[in-house]
Amino acid sequence: MKALMFGWEFPPHILGGLGTASYGLTKGMSLQPDMEIIFVIPKPWGDEDQSFLKIIGANSAPVVWRDVPWETAKSRLEKFMNPEEYYWMRDHIYADFNYMHTNDMGCLEFSGRYPNNILEETNNYSIVAGIIARTYDFDIIHAHDWLTYPAGLHAKSATGKPLVIHVHATEFDRSRGKPNPIVYGIEKDGMDNCDYILCVSDLTRKTVIENYHQHPDKVVTVHNAVSPLDPEIEAIENLAGIPEKIVTFLGRITMQKGPEFFVEAATQVLKKTDNIRFVMAGSGDMMNQMIRMVADRGIADKFHFTGFLRGKQVYEMLKSSDVYVMPSVSEPFGISPLEAMQCSVPSIISYQSGCAEILNHVIKTDYWDVDAMADAMYSICTYPGMAEFLKVEGKKEVDEIKWEYAGLKVRDIYNRLVH
To answer: Is 266 helix (H, G, I), strand (E, B) or coil?
Structure first.
């Protein structure tokens, strides 16, 4: 089985959970002896692990030739594009090469990030997808998250191969129920015209069925998992052995993640004890607001902001923590609690997260219930028996949540569509 996958990020260059999930799923699927994966991203950096898949950069696929008459370029592109695409290329690209930022090789340029012109890059990515799809041999197309749905649809149109889209989050999650109509339209178009929809949780599946009006038979849940922990990673040296307990929020500091509820709960805990420090690890558009909020609550001497952490730094921070908290308002899944449990860190998560469907040895509260969240933080830091139980049983539980098993579920979908 050969899969052509479209993604937007891949470790070690990640800005959120999408890259982590893409890596884990593809590595888990690579354990299937006959599975081959071509993974397309806008801009590889050259240090990605390609031991179990082939990575292709959209920025390396030529779409135009400089200083070549249109008819000559058209003949070269003929094997890759249909007539409609020829004339779109003529009218929108060939007339002005700078329109889509092509380089000297005639390839479109991509930032490799989430730029302000994200919709333009998404459109460009979909154009390149048609060329890539005609270039490689594969059985099925798999598109990860809304940024790649147009690319998946273009590849499907160009080849007739079945398309699976993977919903890692929806615009309803990112916007607290007030979706951007453009993004919503891209998501719905992908869902309407694909062959199967994979969701990372039952919570997300429900959103897809109810808010995007998809038939339940077309939508299936495949819960995320967690990659094995590097045994050589240690806690941050200057934090090891300090007398205070450390309670950590780790993730994007955005309204979806509920950082303000973490600050409010921390404020309540510090009214009972001064033996706890709080860490907000990450970055996002609410960071300055959270810094001001911490100052307004008078807890700045017990609160720390680390900025964005990646790779090994994430696990070093988790290993330095006594409690991990994820107070997300709407979390399609949430891999970070699983990573914390791998590090034997007791975890508190919101009921409004997809991982709450599969985790039992964690404390669950509503994101808005600051009192319950504060009580859970205080209890884990104060009662050693409770902390030890969550450490041991949580680690046992998460060690059985493997990407290999998620990969087998995805493969079953592939087999149904291809055979």
So the answer is: helix
Pairing of strands 196-199, 245-250: unpaired
For residue 93, being part of any structural domain is answered with no
Residues 204-227 have pLDDT tens digits of 999 999 999 999 999 999 999 999
SS3 267: helix
| The model's pTM | 0.87
CATH number of the domain at 130, please.
3.40.50.2000
Question: Over the Cα atoms of the chain, what is R_g?
Answer: 23
d(C-alpha 408, C-alpha 410), whole Å: 5
Tens digits of per-residue pLDDT, 267-307? 999 999 999 999 999 999 999 999 999 999 999 999 999 99
Identity of the residue numbered 190: G
The reply to whether 92 falls in a domain is no
Task: Please indicate, yes or no, whether residues 390 and 368 belong to a single structural domain of this protein.
Answer: yes
Q: Look up the domain containing 353 and give its range.
A: 245-398
409 and 379 in one domain?
no
Record the tokens describing residue 8, joined without a space.
């937007």
238 falls within a domain: no
- Same domain? For 360 and 410 the reply is no
- Say how far apart CA 170 and CA 330 lie, in whole Å: 10
Residue partners of 136: CB distance under 8 A and separation at least 6: 4, 38, 56
Rounded alpha-carbon distances, angstroms, from residue 303 to 59, 71, 263: 42, 64, 9
Name the maximum alpha-carbon separation found in the chain.
77
Q: Are the C-beta atoms of residues 31 and 413 closer than 8 Å to each other?
A: no
Q: How far is Cα 379 from Cα 2, in angstroms, rounded to an integer? A: 50
Bridge partners of residue 363, in order along the sequence: 348
